[in-house]
Amino acid sequence: MNKSPVDIADEETRLVKPGGSLMRDSISYLGTRFTLLIAGTTLAAACDEPVSPVHSTVGAASLSQAGADAVGGLGTLGTGSATPGSDRQEFNFDVTADLSGGQLFYRDWTVVRSDGTVGTLTVDPADPATAITAYRDWASACADPTHGAEFDGTGRLDRGDLTSFTVAACDNGAAESGADFLQMNVPPLGYSHGGSLSSGDVAKSGTATVILQDGFESGNLSEWTQDNPGANRYSLSTDPARVKSGMYSLQALFTPTNTYGLITRWFMPGYDEVYVKFSVMFEENFDERYGLHFLTMAGNGIDDPYSSWGKAGIRPNGTDYFYAGVDPEFINGDPALKPLHFYTYWPDMTCPPLYPDDPCYGNPFYQTSPKIPLVGGQWQEVVFHIKLNTPGQYDGSQTLWINGVKKIDVQNMRWRTTTDLRLNEIRFDNYMSQGPTTEYLWVDEVTVWRPRGVCC
User: Fold this and answer.
1) Distance, CA of 279 to CA of 282 (rounded, Å)
2) DSSP one-letter string for 376-428
3) 435 and 258 in contact (C-beta within 8 Å)?
4) Rounded CA gap, 425 and 98, in Å?
5) What would the pLDDT profile of 303-356 be if each residue is shown by its tens digit?
6) How far apart are CA 404 and CA 398, in angstroms?
7) Domain residue spans in the chain?
8) Contact by Cβ (8 Å): 408, 399
9) pLDDT, greater one: 281 or 5
10) pLDDT higher than threshold 80 for residue 453
11) CB 414 within 8 A of CB 320
12) Phi/psi at 215 (nearest 5 deg)?
């Protein structure tokens, strides 16, 4: 959206948060067919009616399409009154995974126009220029991502122009419990606002199957299998600067004299589709001049948890294994950390002309531009999704999100030729071809889940 200097100056004069700080942003968020059972005073969010400044009970949400993958919500954020300049956001939305007929209304009373009106964002089926454009059956903003959903859309602002937006919603508890969470992001306008609900409800239909979840709060690594545990490559950190949440994180050690380690968990016999979420921090000035392998989702035979082991340089044949790795990009001799990318072994990978006499190593898939840098000393949130193909078809995929932004999406993949090969192992590798120095990385908040409605 192009603005004149006059428009920008006018907005910067008028968009003031409570307390007088400048708010250089605009509205955001939410939508779809959502029927709400309202107790007490109604939130008149979808109308131009005045809204009571009292945070009375809004009520519980029920989804308009019973049994469908959907998320909806009605309620408020903030404790202010329904008056221009107050810290109050109102929302009303209902969104289904099939993207049919989504609706959303969002109003932020802190966004005040030059004429005194308040900023709103709307998705309305009666306005064909607006729509919900994508739905994800998880939300990285939620402590448990399976309790939430995210959706993208194109909405219309109160002043008439269109903008893209993303909403994250977390169904963490009962209506009016204050446990639910909502976040609205409008990247073109630099707007982001979120928090726990002050009234109302977020409701998500169904639940995913959580395969494993580990924030390392048990204080030990007994549920993980280590290669050569006596080498002390893996331990738990209690340093608050190296823990994302809770008291502990997984600490991985790299040394000049010991260049290999791994820590793994299996979930046999396996699944045909999984999501993985984790947070990672590399040490400041982490040196990766020799490259490293970091995270792997492996496919093993349903009766052989080790069928993917010892396969470096070997192209999968569709029945033995596959390997979906997430590593920093690598330039030989360059020590600087580089953005995360996929490093993948699958039957249709590109190999050297003289293979198998020459080894065939994993093929890279890079982030779309602009790439999100991997910065030492900062937590980066990673979500990736792997869907296996139906044997005989090219309908598999792998997708990577960094800090909530989709950066790699590979479709039409053939991972296997038999259903006896499934996703059944998550492994944090600790490998460099040689170790340049003693250094560390930390991992926290690991969750692996199967989407709702997916078999096996």
Assistant:
1) 10
2) TTS-EEEEEEEEPPPTTS--EEEEEEETTEEEEEEEEE---SSTTEEEEEEEE
3) yes
4) 30
5) 999 999 999 999 999 999 999 999 999 999 999 999 999 999 999 999 999 999
6) 16
7) 70-206, 210-450
8) yes
9) 281
10) no
11) no
12) -100, 10
On whether the CB atoms of residues 172 and 417 are closer than 8 A, the answer is: no
Q: Residues for the chain: how many in total?
A: 456
* CATH of the structural domain 210-450, one choice from 2.60.120.200, 1.10.3300.10, 3.90.1150.10, 3.30.565.10: 2.60.120.200
pTM of the model: 0.75
Residue type (1 letter), 309:
W
Q: How far apart, in whole angstroms, are the C-alpha atoms of residue 221 and residue 295?
A: 17
Answer for the pair 18, 87: CB distance below 8 angstroms, yes or no. yes
The residue assigned the tokens 């608050």 is: 240
Burial of 239 per CB tally in 10 Å (0-12, 13-18, 19+): exposed
Q: Around Cβ 395, how many Cβ atoms within 10 Å?
A: 14
Number of H helices, E strands in the chain: 1, 27
Specify whether the CB–CB gap between 70 and 204 falls below 8 A: yes
Q: Distance of CA 135 to CAs 71, 297, 426, 437, Å? A: 10, 24, 25, 43
* C-beta separation of 424 from 252 below 8 A: no
Amino acid at 439: E
pLDDT average, residue stretch 165-178: 93
